[in-house]
Task: structure prediction
Amino acid sequence: MYSLLNSSQWKACLLLVCLLLGGVSGKASEVLHSPNGKIAVSSDNAWKDFKVSYQSGNQMITVVHINNVGLQLLHKEGDFTYTASSSIVPIEEDYMMVTGKRRHCTNRGNQQVFHFKNTGDVHLDLEFRVYDDGIAFRYVLPEVKDELCIAGEKTTFQFPGGITRWTQKLSQSYEDFYLKNKGRVADYSKNQWGFPALFEVSDSIFTLVSEANIMRGNCGSWLNNASSESAYQVEMAQPAKVSGKWCSPWRVAIIGSLADVVESTLITDVSEPCRLTDVSWIKPGVVSWIYWAYNHGSNDYQIVKKYIDFAADFHLPYVLIDAEWDGMANGGNVDDALRYAKEKHVSPLLWYNSSTAWCLYGPLYRLNKPETRQKEFAWLESVGVKGIKVDFFHPDSTSVMNYFMDILEDAAKYHLMVNFHGATIPRGWQRTYPHMMSVEGVYGAEWYNNKEVLTDSAAWHNCTLPFTRNVVGPMDYTPCTFTDSQHPHITSNGHELALLVVFESALQHLADRPEGYQAQPAEVRAFISSLPTVWEDTKLLDGYPSHHVVIARKSGNCWYIGGLNGTNELMSLPVDLSFIRNGIRGITLYADGQKSNQFAVCKLSGLKKNVQVDCLPRGGFVMKVEVE
Result:
């Protein structure tokens, strides 16, 4: 991140002009409703501040106030005043996703555009949408004749005091815990908070705040509550120079029950449609992965062969050859490894360094320039590589966001799937660029390499991620480990297996060493071998952040249900199967055994619609339900 000016120049030479949305005439709608009438947006302050309400039963509950709507400009003096507004336009969209929570997505909303103008002849539009599952708004400068500098954003989400929230301190890799706070946020004046952020605004009523549809010319942003512990201002990563037409990313708040939040596709709903004409080459699947057990294993040909053999034995489509493959030795090099994978009918994925940030693992500087990047991608396609993992990105500046899109657009030309690591969270690109299969941006299992803290915290952390990070897009947590890395895990084997269902990622990387999977019961090995990573539908059946979660995902004629116990106590998790309308042919339960490293696998008889599954402390289960 950087500033265009130093502080003295800033104070002496420039005037920050806040685009305060005022001067409203009676032409503006007093209330903008969602199509189902449950969400309402109104203003008591001349459309400078907005109140968002949600109908729960017979009550309208205030979810959040959106205050100080507007931008900060340099040089262009004068407050913006309201000039006109559009009529309310219905939005109905129907589209298909290659990957994600569901293949077939629909959404309904209502949009109104508010027009403003200042004395410097700068025009500003505020596009505001209210959907059945939340709200989204963005700023549009429809025609910038002379270059402008946007210094920042004033938008502030003001929540009620004393509510429970799950927020993650900002880090450039988005890798930390989602801290659960009830009431006061400790050291709130010192913290920036990354997207997404979850708030329980009333009993069983939630909102998750994030952003979507970052395109060229946009930087990322985050939340800052320095002025007040419950007032979260949107803070841009850096100022922006704009000309022509400019649109901010969408500011999104998903609103409703926890099921509404978890099942929502609002992030992709407001993002640009798919830009690829042919998606038939995009093949999600399960991947064998070296790094968790062997930190520098990809520079050792014999270890790489071991993971290729594992993928072949378990019928996994992919093996990821990670960092330092350019220095591979001990009997072979990367070309030998690629040939061996082809012989075993396993498709390779290769790791790359973004070469923009802090790590010097190789290969370096192969993707930064268009000509070298396209040469590299052409080679990859020619030798049968099906995808790339690109790691270690600098924070969310405009240049880095443009670089993400450069990689995605060039990768599509050479039929390469993409997985971003050490990177920002998804912001809707999984719709626009459907070969973007996964993104790290999560405190995942590789941290067992780095710190002891995940050992005691993983269970509750894993029960927080489905309600926070994974809501906004695919998450490469690298799950399902039965043995230990540098630091031990104390989650049960049932818990670890369930992560493969609970966590959504189009490329699901199996992080453990091969013998960890080979030691499991035959039924568990068969389950892993046939695991889908593309889902037709997703439903939250039960749960509460940091405590427990039960999620169902549909693939073909099967529902896969994963449950996690986030506590250190025995727990019986409820599974309500009444959502399955077709007849049930059979149920296989992969549950905790008597000990945490054991499974109890059985067929359930009686086909009851309500089942209770007993879990060990930090335990879990998977249920595979075959339907007619």
Notes: The longest strand covers residues 134-153. The radius of gyration is 25 Å. The longest helix spans residues 398-413. Residues 297 and 303 are 6 Å apart (CA to CA).
